[in-house]
Amino acid sequence: METNCEIEKLEGFTLEIAEIMVKVFEKLYAISLEIQHPNDIVYQGKKIGGILTETKLQGKMVKYVVVGIRY
Fold this sequence. Notes:
Low-confidence stretches: none
Number of strands: 5
Order of helices and strands: EHEEEE
Largest sheet: 5 strands, antiparallel
Structural class: alpha+beta
């Protein structure tokens, strides 16, 4: 994702992505996942994946955000 916003606007971004994933899995597959802060996805008490985000800054402005989902 390319952007031009201040870094403060991305606070909580990783958690928002995790929340979206949990909703998608519930709706599409009827699987109940949980979020273990700060970035882990948990199924039946076991970690099954996580959300990784990396940003490229220019000064205090965000130029790029890369989101990875590992499992």
